[in-house]
Amino acid sequence: MSKINKRIELIRKLEGLTRGELARKCNIPEQTLENIEYGKQRTPADLVEQMCELFPFASNYLITGKAEIKFTKKEKEKIKTLIHELETIDDLDMEINKRRRTYNKEPSKN
């Protein structure tokens, strides 16, 4: 979880926001935020700035990936669960892409 796109997604989920809600708060299209979270688009500096303003408690984590935030036990468990979910989604994405490549290589049966 060292990439900024995953840190943005984690902060959004910890705050209980949908992509649409965060996108509106940051004045960007929801599709842009989705592309950023999936790593399909680079994270613009102005978005990082807006995120730091919206979530000042997480600005150091957002920029450096190092958290100096004290979490309660319940919050730590929620973070672990979210990280596991994100890793599972990444694994599923990789498997889907692998199967797509395999499917695209197979000759059609006509």
Q: For the CA atoms, what is the radius of gyration? A: 17 Å
Average of the residue pLDDT scores = 86
Order of helices and strands: HHHHHH
Outline? globular
Strand residues, percent: under 5%
Measured distance between first and last alpha carbons: 45 Å
Annotation field: number of helices: 6
Total strand segments: 0
Structural class: mainly alpha
Sheet having the most strands: none
> Which regions have little confidence, pLDDT < 50, spanning 5+ residues?
none
Helical content band: 55-70%
General description of the model:
By secondary structure, the chain is mainly α. It is built from 6 helices and no strands. The chain has helices spanning 4-14, 19-25, 30-37, 45-54, 59-64, 73-105. The protein is globular, with a radius of gyration of 17 Å. It starts with a helix and ends in a 5-residue tail after the last helix. The model has no long low-confidence stretch (mean pLDDT 86).
Q: What is this entry, summarized?
A:
By secondary structure, this protein is mostly helical. It has helices at residues 4-14, 19-25, 30-37, 45-54, 59-64, 73-105.
List keywords for this structure.
110 residues, globular
